[in-house]
Amino acid sequence: MSLPPEKASELKQLIHQQLSKMDVHGRIREILAETIREELAPDQQQLSTEDLIKALRRRGIIDDVMKELNFVTDNVDQELPSSPKQPVCFTDRQSTLLKKTNIDPTRRYLYLQVLGGKAFLEHLQEPEPLPGQVCSTFTLCLHFRNQRFRSKPVPCACEPDFHDGFLLEVHRESLGDGTRMADSTTMLSISDPIHMVLIKTDIFGETTLVASYFLEWRSVLGSENGVTNLTVELMGVGTESKVAVGILNIKLEMYPALNQTLSQEVVNTQLALERQKTAEKERLFLVYAKQWWREYLQIRPSHSSRLVKIFAQDENGINRPVCSYVKPLRAGRLLDTPRQAARFVNVLGYERAPVIGGGGKQEQWCTLLAFLCRNKGDCEDHANLLCSLLLGYGLEAFVCVGTKAKGVPHAWVMTCGTDGTITFWESLTGHRYIHKSTNPDEPPVAEQPKPLYPYRTVGCVFNHQMFLGNCQPSDSVEVCVFDLNDESKWKPMSEEAIKSVCAPGATTSLPPFPPLCASTIDASVTSNEIEMQLRLLVSEHRKDLGLTTVWEDQLSYLLSPALASYEFERTTSISAGNEEFQDAIRRAVPDGHTFKGFPIHFVYRNARRAFATCLRSPFCEEIICCRGDQVRLAVRVRVFTYPESACAVWIMFACECAS
């Protein structure tokens, strides 16, 4: 293939730059001198080219160069787009696929490479997975200044084979600076860390939070050539937050290269000043919180037994003010209404923080990124996320901390309407309850409203700006008056004090809130896959019982409107479409035949696990194991997707048979 003269000179220049970057010329000179010194016989006057090539090959120079040069077949005559963002190619050595990303030459980027892991000792005995074998995997999730990334899953091992690169845009969010390329001094003032979360997914699709780490990236500003290599030690979470779980090798590089690097002393001084400022703010808030608590106990000594939670531990075992776990969060175009937001939070899985041994509940309030990446969390995680979303929709929302039946600690969300209406939102179920206070001073004959909500006591309420302790004579939710402006009923904390440690950018120790990500699940494909797996499981189960299975496809299709109606009702609390469904079923089932249907709802996509759960219901088992004349079975699956790849899975089993 012949190249035009200008392309040939451009190619030569690229090759020359690559060789200069690798210092190939210097290494060749060293090997040439060494070869002449060691291998040239006294009677020889010169080395042949073949001898030199052999020496270079033997020392791996040629292999190194060939590895670095990635040749891509492309049409060289094809015109490049005239857009200012030219596609820059990053080739992955593990894959022949060419990855392209648009880089704006007027913006500054940080290229973060994860170059493998080591010392994940929990997986020391992990066998090497066979080709095609399903195995547990590690996935690394990153968040930096409203940008989120996820690595390719790699098999769990003592030395996991992470080889991923992430291009992070470093930009100023203040007005007027958005289009300027950030220089070293500007970037030094950007205190946002890179939040890295390591997730383990087992062979059944269950996720576990392995580590949560905040990477201080600004050391690259003081490194030579704007490139630095880091060894990051990841610590465990919860009760294991002081135990190392593994090490990641990370390389940071600035694009374009910095014209002027800062001295390491300047970078270290800036970081030390930030830490000092943060520590002082946190110290002052702690002094204030202790004083507030003393005043609260002076109102009534019995207040010491109320659930007034000012601080909570995150997954790394760090105590943070509860107000820092909540912030107005906008879902963009991913969620349209507050009730849809409540449904989204409800379909995220519920799991209490794991505890080793007995002794009750282990407390762990997760940062938002850790909760979203794991796709499940405790009631506090759900309540914090729902409150943040409702605040984003412009509602006056608070997280309530108290107890439900049998004194079990619990957290839920409350919104205050402009007309004084108090609404409780249960983040684990999506249910809403209107609160009507009972007056304990009314005579017994007066009819009192019976509460439908499961909450028994409330100790405090908070959001991103306010914290209020319940100082009413009784902390029973039934008799509580939620007039938060009445200081005789609710003792407030200073909003200025809360702002000093919880406002965005107030301290460098505050984890930034990540944006929500759209679902990557194809609802139709996933629905079909689960439905086919369930058909197979039902047929096998009936075969074991000595029964044959006949599927009625038309009846299966007719179940779809019912499943859509159930999900609509869960989201809006409005029932619609049941009349049409019932009419269609009456027409489809012949005279003298009986129809039975059983709908059930899951928040996971494991067909075998769902089938085992269905069989535990006597109603469902009666349908699946139906015996009689002209038995026809039907099953319909409908997957409804939500942000963060959360989903609501509705399944309906049905049968018709001769009466």
From TrEMBL:
Q: Which UniProt keywords apply?
A: Cytoplasm, Cytoskeleton
Q: Which residues form the CEP76 C2 domain?
A: 102-259
Q: Does the keyword Cytoplasm apply?
A: yes
Q: Which InterPro entries match?
A: CEP76, CEP76-C2, CEP76_C, CEP76_N, CEPT76/DRC7_peptidase-like_dom, Papain-like_cys_pep_sf
List each copy of the CEP76/DRC7 peptidase-like domain by range. Answer: 363-493
Domain annotation Centrosomal protein of 76 kDa C-terminal: ranges: 520-657
Localization annotation: Cytoplasm, Cytoskeleton, Microtubule organizing center, Centrosome, Centriole
Specify whether Repeat is a keyword of the entry: no
* Domain called CEP76 N-terminal: residue spans: 10-69
* UniProt record similarity statement: Belongs to the CEP76 family.
- Biological role: Centrosomal protein involved in regulation of centriole duplication. Required to limit centriole duplication to once per cell cycle by preventing centriole reduplication.
What protein does this entry describe? Centrosomal protein of 76 kDa
Q: Which gene encodes it?
A: CEP76
